[in-house]
Inverse folding.
């Protein structure tokens, strides 16, 4: 009886250890899966946000990355489509966009994730729109980058950015304009 009890205890402890190891591996797998999805969503979404703010094109695609309520209240998008947009007088042809993911945390069993990113647009290329050549200078306004705390929500199996709080402002140097061409 003593040997059977020892054998059962040995098997039970090893089974518990294996189950704990499998649970840790599964949790790590789903955390990595969520982290990868969130990283791609945040980098592509923030790039698209800058692109829409600079060019005022393809705003519908923002719905792939951002929640509807966030987009309705986003000051960058509201400014981009108003007459007070700093880029309304320019035709932006290209820009460099850099996102650095500083911190990310997403438990596999939660539908909310948080990350901290640093966004920079160090270079904007473009020219003054031909209709505005005599009204504005050739200097394209610099982008105001910064550090952001990002909140994401998973609904119907898809992550969306639902919160973006700027915690630090980064002022970029004034972009160099291209030569003005007649259109």
């Amino acid at each position: 009886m003593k040997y059977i009890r020892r054998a059962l205890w040995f098997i039970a402890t090893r089974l518990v250890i294996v189950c704990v190891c499998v649970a840790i591996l599964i949790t790590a797998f789903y955390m990595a899966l969520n982290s990868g999805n969130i990283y791609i969503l945040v980098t592509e979404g923030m790039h698209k946000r800058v692109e829409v703010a600079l060019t005022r094109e393809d705003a519908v695609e923002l719905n792939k990355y951002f929640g509807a309520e966030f987009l309705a209240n986003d000051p960058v998008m509201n400014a981009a489509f108003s007459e007070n947009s700093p880029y309304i007088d320019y035709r932006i042809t290209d820009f460099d966009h850099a996102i650095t993911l500083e911190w990310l945390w997403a438990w596999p069993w939660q539908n909310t994730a948080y990350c901290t990113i640093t966004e920079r647009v160090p270079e904007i290329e473009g020219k003054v729109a031909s209709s505005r050549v005599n009204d504005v200078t050739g200097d394209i306004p610099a982008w105001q980058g910064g550090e952001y705390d990002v909140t994401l929500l998973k609904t119907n199996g898809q992550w969306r950015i639902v919160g973006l709080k700027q915690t630090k402002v980064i002022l970029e140097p004034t972009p160099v304009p291209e030569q003005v061409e007649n259109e």
Strands lie at 90-105, 112-128, 144-155, 158-171. The radius of gyration is 24 Å. Helices lie at 2-55, 68-73, 75-80. Residues 58 and 174 are 25 Å apart (CA to CA).
